[in-house]
Prior knowledge:
This protein is of the alpha+beta class. It contains seven helices and eight strands. The longest helix is centred in the first third of the chain and has 20 residues, at 46-65. It has one domain (12-216): Gcn5-related N-acetyltransferase (GNAT) (Aminopeptidase), CATH 3.40.630. Mean pLDDT is 86; it is low at 1-9.
Amino acid sequence: MTTATAPPAARAAVRRARPDEAPALARLLADAFADDALMLWAFPDPDHRARVLPAFFRVHLEQCLAHDGVVVAHEDTAYGRLLGALLFLPPGVWEDPGRADGAATRALTEAIDAGRHGESARRLAAITHLQQRRHPRHRPHHYLAFLGVRPDARGAGAAEEMLTAVLAQVDDAGQAAYAETSSTGGAHLCATHGFTRFGETIALPGGGPRLAPMWRGPR
């Protein structure tokens, strides 16, 4: 999750993403996470990182779109530009992936080009392994996977609007939510929306960044 300054010209409105927006949203998320500590660690080569991030996020977008799990923020004007996106999976999907999700995993492996960038492949495998070990299994929940805002729109409330919209859906269903944050800004955003720390931080190997697991029970 990312925060910064430079507000957009218009306030943010929130809606569900359309499938045809996947390419634009993949580029938006690649820009939003270009300076994220987790992505810098996972893709240490800057040229590779610039090439792979749009494909990386396209895979996750397609997976979440298949479950109606992408919310976007956009300028509240007739032709308002996209400002950010929140990707999430509903209860049961993370724990029991279907055929489409298996295809997403294979597509992600191809996008990384593991044959030429084995270090990135190993680091992503380490992230996935540690996340799976710590992921809560005691109660059904929505899994908030990625929340990103374009750099020139940070600090104007887009992240808050998207998170509020998704949590309203979660609350209406009487369900819980779980997320892992890779920044202090993301942890603060979650905390202000009722999340609390869920156990110890996830420490990535070799002095990598830490992820803070966050849990929000049913309301």
